[in-house]
Design brief:
Radius of gyration: 19 Å
Structural class: alpha+beta
Helix content: 10-25%
CATH topology: Immunoglobulin-like
Shape: elongated
Strand content: over 45%
Largest sheet: 5 strands, mixed
Number of strands: 9
CATH architecture: Sandwich
Order of helices and strands: HEEEEEEEEE
Number of helices: 1
Length: 111
């Protein structure tokens, strides 16, 4: 009986740990440098929450803006921030820098 209970408890704990691992958000790093986003295209898994860590290496602020992702956030110069997006349906979601929209452009591609 002890072995049976120990086996059940071990199975439950493994199930719990694996479900926590799969529930963790994917983290993607996006860098702003010279008023450009690097990388300009970010591929993320569709149907999963994603953590975007945006690092502004420019001395000036920039605003991450996306109408399709329903997100906007000002990132001060030489600072970073985190934005959560998703879960997203498969497709492309453009974003841009509000302060330098001609150069700071990119897109999230959910597959």
């Amino acid at each position: 009986m002890k072995n049976y209970i120990a086996t059940i408890l071990m199975s439950l704990s493994l199930l719990f740990v694996s479900s926590l691992a799969s529930a963790a958000a994917v983290e993607i790093e996006l860098v702003i440098k010279d008023h450009l986003f690097f990388p300009a295209e970010v591929e993320v898994p569709a149907g999963q929450k994603v953590k975007l860590r945006i690092i502004n290496q420019d001395p000036t602020p920039e605003e991450f803006e996306s109408y399709e992702l329903n997100r906007e956030k000002v990132i001060a110069g030489n600072r970073q921030t985190v934005i959560f997006i998703g879960p997203l349906s498969p497709g492309e979601y453009p974003f841009f820098g509000e302060f330098y929209p001609k150069t700071a452009q990119g897109k999230v591609i959910a597959k």
